[in-house]
């Protein structure tokens, strides 16, 4: 029971630090949120997301690609919910207590969110090393990768590239 309580406390701490970082005049403790999408550690720019939430009820819609999970009501506003793990690796994200919805910032696009397997925590690029070898580019990941002090490889999410990609912009099955 104590481990479950510690996990909840850790997740609550991350969410509180994210909210503090967004307050006017606050010095951001980190520029990125570390998450797991499929089998990849991914850095998400805090400027490109507006909120993180537990996964809400997702209502399926017909005749769409498998990675478009459906829509969810977030405080009276419908959000299009996407599974980037399935889009990138054809691996369905398990909706568990660790999974989170990340709402994209209105500066990127409106009413779009994506599911991540879990949040790792806030990360800073100046504490990581740019790797010499690039990863294969995708519809939403940049080619450059980073390595942290624990030798974990981190990919960089590019939300702008994602929302402008043809595959993402047309989620229905042709």
Describe this structure in words.
The structure is a single chain. The strands form two sheets. A six-stranded mixed sheet has the order 8-1-2-11-10-9. It has a five-stranded mixed sheet with strand order 3-6-7-5-4. The longest helix has 20 residues, at 2-21. It is globular and about 45 Å long. The chain has a single domain (30-169), classed as Beta Barrel (OB fold (Dihydrolipoamide Acetyltransferase, E2P)). With 174 residues, it is an alpha+beta fold. It is built from four helices and eleven strands, in the order H-E-E-E-E-E-H-E-E-E-E-E-E-H-H. The mean pLDDT is 87. The chain has helices spanning 2-21, 84-89, 159-164, 166-169; strands at 32-37, 40-45, 49-54, 68-74, 77-83, 100-104, 112-116, 118-123, 129-130, 141-147, 153-157.
